Amino acid sequence: MRVDVITIFPDYLAPLREALLGKAIDKGLLDLGVHDLRKWTYDVHKAVDDSPFGGGPGMVMKPQVWGEALDEVCAGATPRLIVPTPAGRPFTQAVAQELAGESHLVFACGRYEGIDQRVIDDAATRMPVDELSIGDYVLVGGEVAVLAIVEAVVRLLPGVLGNPASHEQDSFSDGLLEGPSYTRPVVWRDREVPEVLRSGNHAAIARWRRDRALERTFERRPDLLEALPDAELDKQDRKL
Ligand code: ADE
User: Fold this and answer.
1) Which of 83, 85, 120 has most ligand 1 atoms within 8 Å of its beta carbon, as the pocket-test mutant?
2) Helices marked H in the chain — which ranges?
3) Fewest CB atoms less than 10 Å from the CB: which of 3, 30, 38, 140?
4) What is the pLDDT of residues 16-50, one digit of tens each?
5) Which residue minimizes the CA distance to atom 10 of ligand 1?
6) Is the ipTM of this complex over 0.85?
């Protein structure tokens, strides 16, 4: 997968070359380009923003600069353009799975009050565009959202995780939150690992895990249980 990120803070994206993502780059599974938006400015101040029409606080990112940046970064390709914004549709595991099927993603990081809307409308005539939010809170810019989105997407690419079963058991992959996990020692500070997990009885372990996932989801995210199609619940689940 090819990923391009356009930002006024290229250093902010340095963690994309660390740990699991760094390994994905080394293995040739991820081809990453980070571009400084100011490369497409021509004035002495390298200005990327201007005051908003209609008034109000904050600044809006200029269409000319973004237009040229996207023309150059997207030249000869039809990538999917992702614009992180608190006004976007929610980024979820299902969206991560969808994006993991793409061959080229371009991220446009806005700062200030956002990017002139015409940049997004113009790009949408040439390529698929998604405005995505990573949660109901406001960050200073899109960079941290890009870190979260790229990490969630790249770990789904075949060959990135050592054990492909890892993400089949993720929270959300069955619509539920994952339950608790334990490792050695069996007793730590008088707290014992649940006996069933040490029993070797695989059916009992699977049932126990499913019950803890249901309980946790009920307590913390009742909205997820509400959204679960009835067919996803087995007879035993329904008794809980
Ligand atoms: N930019 C600022 N806040 C954001 C959020 N919550 N999600 C995505 N991009 C953002």
Assistant:
1) 85
2) 19-26, 63-73, 93-100, 117-123, 143-154, 202-220, 222-227, 235-239
3) 140
4) 999 999 999 999 999 999 999 999 999 999 999 99
5) 85
6) yes
